[in-house]
Amino acid sequence: MQYLIKAPSQLNTTVNLPASKSISNRALIIGALSGGHVLPENLSDCDDTGVIVRALESMPEVIDIKAAGTAMRFMTAYLAVTPGTHVITGTERMKHRPIGILVDALRYLGASIDYVGEEGFPPLRIAGRRIAGGALEVPGNISSQYISALLMIGPALRKGLQLRLTGSIISRPYIDLTLHIMHRFGAVVDWTDIDTITVEPKPYVACDYLIENDWSAASYWYEMLALCGDDEAEVRLTGLVDGSRQGDSSVRYIFSLLGIKTSFGAAAEGQPATVTLKRSRRPLPRLDFDFVNAPDLAQTFVVCCAVLGIPFHFTGLTTLKIKETDRIEALKKEMRKLGYVVRDVDGRELYWDGERCQPAADMAIDTYDDHRMAMAFAPAAFRLPQLRINNPMVVSKSYPLFWDHLRQAGFGISEV
Fold first, then answer.
1. Which of 5, 245, 274, 393, CA to CA, is 20 to 30 A from 201?
2. Torsional sign, CA 370, 376, 382, 384
C-alpha cells in the first residue's frame, strides 16, 4: 500500500494524542508483577502494547510479540521470574535484533533461558522461577529497555537488585521513568550512587494507574507546525503533562529553537492540560543537539531541519542502528530521495551541511517496518507536494490513528 500525502494550506486543529506506549508497557509489566487484575486507565491501543496485553492475559506456551522490541525485552525479564515455560519469538527483523546482554544479565541473576535459534538473538525458551538476584553490572550505553527490564523485576528477586551501570549512561530519562512507575506501585528503589540503582526485595502493591498521553506522538505535530508556513497556524494537543518524565517531552524545548512556542492551558483537577502550539519567531540558522536522552526524536528533526534548510549535527544516536530498522542508514537513503545528502559519523552521529542532490522522480518513502519513518516523513508534504509513503499502516505500532488525525486536520490522504 502507498499513500499520497497532500498537506492543507492552513493548519488549525485539536488532536487527542495516543496514550504513552513507554508508560503503558511499563505499567502493564509492573501491574502484572504486583498481582493486580485491573488494566491501567487510558492504556495505549498501539500494536506494541497490544502484544503485551494479549501475552499477559493468556500466557500461551509460544508468545509472539511480532515487531515490538519493548515487549521482547520486558517480557523476557517478566517470564524469567514467572512460573511456567514459554518460548518468546517475533518477526524476522526481531530475530536479528540482539538480546544477548539482557539474557546474560538474567542468567547471572539465576534465570533459566536458552536460545532456540541463533546465539544472542530471539527466539528464547524461558523456564520461569523465583531467582536470587543480587549485584550486577551492565554497560550504561546499552538500550535503556534492557536496564528497565532488569529493574522492573527487582522487587520479585529474593535478594533484590543492585544494578551498577558502567561507562556513560544513555537514555537516562527512560530509566528514571521506570523508577517513577515502580515507586507508584510501592517499590523501594532509587539511585544509591552516581552509577548504581538499588531495588529492595519488597513486593509491588497493586494500584490504579492513569497513563498520560505520548510526547513522542506530539513531536510530529510540532514538525507539521514548523513546516506548514502558515504564521497563524495553531495545534492543540490533549493529555500531555508539564514536567513529564517521558524522555521525549524534551521535544518542546528543542522545537522552541525552531520557532515553535508551547503553552499549557489550565487543567481540571487530576487531569492533564491541553497544550497549544504556535509559531513564534524565526528558527535558528543551525541546530546541533545531543539526542542521547531522546533518540526516538532524531528522525523527526533530521527531516524537519533539512526540509527547512537548517544545517544540523546530531549526536547520541548509537541505539538507532538496532531499532525497528537501522535508522541511520534508512534516514540517509530516504533523505536522498528528497534531495538531501545526510551523512553519518561511525553510525552514531548524523549531519547535514546543506549538500543537495537530484531528488527522485517518484518521492515514495520506504518505511522499513518502522512506524517513526512514516510519521517523521509525512509532515514534509507541506514542502513536497508529491510525497508518498510506502506501507503507511506501520504507524499502528505506536499511533494507530495517525492518518485519521491528519485527515481531520485537513490533509488529503489517498491510496495510490
1. 245
2. negative
Q: C-alpha angle with apex 92: 90 to 93, nearest 5 degrees?
A: 95
CA 269 to chain centre: 28
d(CA 396, CA 403): 10
- Is 47 noted as a catalytic residue in this protein? no
Q: What is the pLDDT of residues 171-183, one digit of tens each?
A: 899 999 999 999 9
Which amino acid, residue 139?
Answer: P
Contacts of 102 (CB under 8 A, 6+ apart): 73, 76, 77, 146, 149, 150
**Peptide bond before 18: cis, by omega within 30 degrees of 0?**
no
pLDDT digits (tens, 9 = 90+) for 306-338: 999 999 999 999 888 877 789 999 999 999 999
Q: Which residue has the cell 531528488?
A: 359
Q: Which residues of 338-360 are buried (b: 16+ CB within 10 A; e: fewer)?
A: bbbebebeeebbbbbeeeeeeee
- Provide the whole-model pTM: 0.91
Q: Which helix H or strand E contains 75, and what residues bound it?
A: helix 69-80
Residue 12 is classified by DSSP as E
Q: Which of 296, 344, 362, 369 is catalytic?
A: 296
Which phi and psi angles does 63 have, rounded to 5°?
-110, 115
188, amino acid identity? V
